[in-house]
Amino acid sequence: MATKFCGCQTFDVDKFEKEKQLREIGSQAVWSLSSCKIGFGIENLLDSNTSSFWQSDDATPHYINIQFKRKMYISDVCIYMDFKNDESYTPNKMSIRAGSHFHDLLEVELVELAEPNGWLYIPLRDRHDKMVKTFMLQIVIISNHQNGKDTHLRQIRVHTPNTQVELNPNNPVITQNFSSVDMKQFSIR
Question: How many C-beta atoms lie closer than 10 Å to residue 162's C-beta?
Fold first, then answer.
């Protein structure tokens, strides 16, 4: 199930999230890397700054593991890359895998890139064309442009549909005047 991309689209990912009613859920996960250079770790992938980057520190393949406490619906992954600045550090072949844990991961998408510059949008669907529901995602950088050894990724965003909970003011549970501090957060009075 290879998906080929000639490059990446330049788009405003924040605007994209609002238009598609998506919620970024990376902060709800535990992230781990196969390797990183000191000062270029996971925090650089999640800091919303496209000038910073994660840099691996080992031979390919490189792994980014994203583990959730509960099964999550994942609609897509957006990855920011900058071939103009990163050149041979830029991935040209990546695999996106999903599963319950490290031992049952299955490939959901295989992505081949040609000099990507900007945000790469990767929709995730299972074999029945339904949104992936998983405990774990793994992004594998299989190879880089110009046979580069280490890799740079600048940002990663993991999205789920933004489901709205409708509050019914006639519901006696919601409109109760709770007395405990823990329960007052659920009162709409």
Answer: 13
